[in-house]
Specification:
It is a single chain. With 293 residues, the chain is α+β, with helices and mostly antiparallel strands. 18% of the residues lie in helices and 26% in strands. The protein is built from five helices and 17 strands. The longest helix is centred in the last third of the chain and has 17 residues, at 229-245. The mean pLDDT is 93.
Length: 293
């Protein structure tokens, strides 16, 4: 486990604005080829603020990939474990777009995207993700991030003691009709979803900060290992209510040329539905991660 140290303020990276509950706007030139010590400071900012916002950028794919690579290798998967864009797109750059007609492949349209961390159904989910706004029209949906460290910290002690040893099993949604699944608790006597499965701790530890987060989503089929269906459903409902009642979130209203980078280990994110006639086009890159512990 890594020991994470406070690093002195960097001369080329300025924290310009800190959001109330999570997130910070930074001023940086993403085109710079950062040295290892500079990457460490950028990572330090991300793992402490959890969401970094960079405004007014104009990057091509090569420059966008250079920025993302400061946080690690690009995320990849295989045909047995499909993810968004993995089957028909070999590039790490994925188009998340509505009315993105100029692109051969784009995903998610205008539908609601329920609170989730990316790729939680995989053995090694992605660690960091990045979105870059290409063309955002009036009325397009924001993206909302939740601080799952603060949400875990706010749990009653008896609930923490209950969930600390539990494992969560998340089923791959890409074996179901697209968009058909939302926080469904699996009853194995009725239906076992397809695909390989990998259990993860319901309370995961960050490999750089050692802080604990509630590792729960509202977007996929899931179960808690070792609990009855009745008890698991009750716990899931309680935890979702706990998340929704707390203010530990950041709402990003997208503008053209915004970049948002987030820590996928300690946050979940959500996008509400919006009018199908509104254009909203972004590029996404994800970074490889480790098996949660």
């Amino acid at each position: 486990m890594s020991t994470w140290k406070t690093i002195e303020v960097h001369e080329f990276i300025k924290v310009d604005k800190v959001e109330k509950y999570l997130g910070a706007e930074i001023i940086i030139d993403p085109r710079i080829q950062w040295l290892e010590k500079d990457k460490s400071y950028l990572q330090y900012l991300l793992y402490n603020f959890k969401v970094l916002i960079i405004k007014n950028q104009n990057l091509n794919d090569k420059e966008l990939k250079k920025l993302a690579s400061n946080f690690g290798d690009f995320f990849t998967t295989n045909k047995a474990n499909p993810t968004l864009g993995s089957v028909d797109n070999s590039s790490p750059v994925v188009i998340v777009g509505n009315k993105a007609d100029e692109f051969e492949l784009s995903y998610l349209g205008n539908q609601e995207v329920l609170p989730h961390s990316d790729h939680q159904w995989l053995e090694k989910p992605s660690s960091v993700s990045l979105l870059y706004a290409l063309d955002i029209h009036n009325g397009a949906a924001p993206t909302i991030w939740y601080d799952m460290e603060k949400i875990y910290d706010a749990l009653p002690t008896d609930i923490k003691n209950k969930i600390n040893p539990l494992k969560i099993l998340t089923y791959n949604p890409f074996f179901r009709p697209f968009g058909s699944i939302s926080a469904k608790y699996v009853d194995r006597y009725l239906d076992v979803p397809q695909g390989e499965t990998y259990d993860h701790p319901l309370v995961r530890t960050h490999p750089f900060t050692d802080r604990k987060s509630l590792y729960l989503h509202k977007a996929y089929e899931m179960e808690f290992i070792g609990l009855s269906v009745k008890e698991g459903k009750q716990l899931m409902k309680f935890l979702h209510k706990h998340i929704e009642e707390l203010p530990f979130k950041y709402v990003h209203q997208w503008k053209n040329n915004d970049i948002v980078i987030w820590d996928n280990r300690s946050t979940i994110h959500y996008r509400p539905t919006f009018n199908e006639n509104i254009r909203r086009v972004l590029k996404r890159i994800s970074i490889a991660g480790e098996k949660p512990f």
